[in-house]
Amino acid sequence: MGQDTASTPFKVVTNGSITTPKGFRAGGLHCGLKKTTRFDLGAIVCEVPATAAGVYTTNVFQAAPLQVTRESIAAEGLLQAVLVNSGNANACTGQQGEADAYEMRARFAEAIGVPAAHVAVASTGVIGENLKMDKVRVGIDGLPSQLDGGQPGADGFCQAILTTDLVQKMVCVELELDGKIVTVAGAAKGSGMIHPNMATMLGFVTTDAKIGSEALQALLRQATNYTFNMITVDGDTSTNDMLVAMASGLVDHAELTPAHDGWAAFAAALRYVCEVLAKAIARDGEGATKLVEVQVHGAVSDDSAAAIAKTVIGSSLVKSAVFGADANWGRIIAAVGRAGQPVNPATVDIRLGDIVTLQQSRPVAFDEEVALEYLKGDTVVIVVDLHNGEGSATAWGCDLTYDYVRINAAYRT
């Protein structure tokens, strides 16, 4: 379910960014990987070695930068920087791609004066093309001068990670731990090739909380399962997706563990940051005009509810009906029925917002014009109540439009 900030121990920092947590700078520039002049190389840098955690795509064909980042985090559970390029995925590029990813790590580490093992690398863009390393090298050498601890640095980084995204995606919250203000922030990119199993995107979380690597990894994976693993745009899981978290530990509070009084509050803040970014990715789906939220209640378990919610949100027929503002609940119940989960065929309710269309698996007369107006809105909520247990889950996606086909038909050109 979505996080109600009015009842949580954290508050949203409206003018915050990934550089708001203590110790972080960021920036971006154009090095020439993109055909336009939009930024295509960016970095987040921490002034101290930060506790690190990562979650990665489940695609078998994992891009070279994932190997580098896994290795960096595994070495000591620490990162001091993450270097990201857009415009080229450096995926399916063989030994040359691996060598390029390692060179990016080593060159940027030298440029900012940190050990190579403290640098993560991420790439996004076209698959199967070698990086233009002559351009990347020049960009890396110029990047340190672009790093900034304020909003310009954060904006530069967010611009540098975009591909077909239409908007930057960033969020920041703060909470109190042991009488001290702790900040959690995040930035992400993602618009196409989005599907559960890590979702398909790049995500970056910064915080000044004091927490160990194993504890941060556990919380990040938990937050991912409720957020990034619950979105879909087009059913495709990419080769490059990763979510990396860095905790500078520069706020002087007792280290966060499950025994800490603030553990649940910090977990809620982290999950909220991930949820906002995940929903922003779904809303910014390629060609999308609407954010679609599917809530499933009354399932035999939360896992079962999640499987059903993801099946409904991923249905091309459901997504097409939402685009056309067609209150075709038959497509919704058909998706529920093929999700491979326990369902009582006689007890299902379906609502579109507040409009009841099915009750106890029987059609309910509703005003088609009212439903049409609701479905024309920019956010559509589909509620499915199975009356079969206590499990619940929420998934997010978008409508399927003509523009999605247009964008992806010419992605390389």
From TrEMBL:
Gene3D superfamilies: arginine biosynthesis bifunctional protein suprefamily (3.30.2330.10), ArgJ beta chain, C-terminal domain (3.10.20.340), L-amino peptidase D-ALA esterase/amidase (3.60.70.12). GO terms for cellular component: cytoplasm. It is found in: Cytoplasm. Pathway: Amino-acid biosynthesis; L-arginine biosynthesis; N(2)-acetyl-L-ornithine from L-glutamate: step 1/4; Amino-acid biosynthesis; L-arginine biosynthesis; L-ornithine and N-acetyl-L-glutamate from L-glutamate and N(2)-acetyl-L-ornithine (cyclic): step 1/1. Heterotetramer of two alpha and two beta chains. Belongs to the ArgJ family. It is an enzyme of class 2 (transferase). Keywords: Acyltransferase, Amino-acid biosynthesis, Arginine biosynthesis, Autocatalytic cleavage, Cytoplasm, Multifunctional enzyme, Transferase. NCBIfam families: ArgJ, PRK05388.1. It catalyses: L-glutamate + acetyl-CoA = N-acetyl-L-glutamate + CoA + H(+); N(2)-acetyl-L-ornithine + L-glutamate = N-acetyl-L-glutamate + L-ornithine. The record marks T124, G125 as: Involved in the stabilization of negative charge on the oxyanion by the formation of the oxyanion hole. One of its GO terms (biological process) is ornithine biosynthetic process. Its EC number is 2.3.1.35, 2.3.1.1. InterPro entries: Arg_biosynth_ArgJ, ArgJ-like_dom_sf, ArgJ_beta_C. The active site is at T200. Catalyzes two activities which are involved in the cyclic version of arginine biosynthesis: the synthesis of N-acetylglutamate from glutamate and acetyl-CoA as the acetyl donor, and of ornithine by transacetylation between N(2)-acetylornithine and glutamate. Its main location: cytoplasm. Pfam families: ArgJ. The record marks A199, T200 as: Cleavage. Substrate binds at T163, K189, T200, E286, N408, T413. This is Arginine biosynthesis bifunctional protein ArgJ. One of its GO terms (molecular function) is L-glutamate N-acetyltransferase activity, acting on acetyl-L-ornithine as donor.
